[in-house]
Amino acid sequence: MSPAIAKVGVVIPSYRVTAHVLDVIARIGRECHAVYVVDDACPDKSGQFVLEHCRDPRVKVVFNDVNLGVGGAVMRGYREAVNDDCDVVVKIDGDGQMAPELLPQFIAPILEGYADYAKGNRFFDLSEISQMPVIRLFGNAILSFMSKISSGYWDVFDPTNGYTAIHARIIEHLPLNKISHRYFFESDMLFRLNTLRCVVVDVPMDANYGDEKSNLKISSIVFDFLFKHVRNFFKRIFYNYFLRDLSPASLELIAGPLLLAAGAAYGITQWQSSAQQNVMTAPGTVMLAALPVIMGFQLILAFLSHDMQSVPKVAVHRRLHRKKKAL
Question: 173: which DSSP letter?
Fold first, then answer.
């Protein structure tokens, strides 16, 4: 799709951002055709503030009756953009941490047809990472590792980065009512995108921390995120390796942990028995315990290698477009 004819919408979830939101809107370039400011029951009435002070004709302000969280606000914006026939929808925050000038870099992979979803990566340029507070750096590293396992996107980083762009056809196939509405939104999106086999790419961007205050506290959400990542991991494995398809990797995933657990259990039992009798464990017994452990570990590694190689490579929205034209 040519950038000249594509309709681009920008969604700005608005909650306590009156100090920065007008500047963010003013910096959005002409490549954007519509801006959706979603007042998420903001106590500062940021939506009304935009209505009264913004004269940009592209801006449309919508109001949530109750606070739905950043994910709920974005879902509302997605629906508005799809209803207005936008082709690509970008989500940026209204607190000024995300440079609107980078918008062309986010929509380019989608308009060029090799990605369904683009997201920011603040870790690409190592010289810029020093700007990130240590607690955020450490927390994001942990969350990134958990997200790789749960989502299956082993080649992307910085999963909590909220600067994103998505093709509208993908939005139409996402279960918007099931996606997490709170801070797990970005990570849950990756899991949902993998179930659709969408191509996700990272877009390098710098970390930018000014006088704005983030509502996200990494230390307070790590354990909540851990539980949700574990849940999504098992869902993804079931969807991709047992419900939709059955491959050698599926058998490796079953046999590997079973052999590892059986060998470890047998070895521990024999070691305890030998310790109680104060005798040396027979070499044959040691090998009998070690062999399934080694085989199980190798099968698990083989499964992980297959999973890492299975990251989607062909953009789904192109297939959806061809299917729509055929109909």
Answer: H
Backbone angles phi, psi at 124, to 5 degrees: -70, -45
In the structure encoding, which two tokens stand for residue 236, read together? 């993804």
- Which residues share a beta bridge with 12? 37
For 131-184, the pLDDT digits (tens) are 666 766 777 788 888 999 999 999 998 888 899 999 999 999 999 989 988 888
Alpha-carbon distance of 12 to 31, in angstroms, equals: 16
CA distance 304 to 257: 12
| Both structure tokens of 272 | 């305890």
User: What does residue 166 show for φ and ψ, rounded to 5 degrees?
Assistant: -145, 145
pLDDT digits (tens, 9 = 90+) for 232-256: 999 999 999 999 888 899 999 999 9
Assign 3-state DSSP to the chain and report helix, strand, coil percentages, each to 5.
55, 10, 35
The CATH topology of domain 8-241 is Spore Coat Polysaccharide Biosynthesis Protein SpsA; Chain A (3.90.550)
Spatial separation of the C-alpha atoms in residues 38 and 86, rounded to whole Å: 16
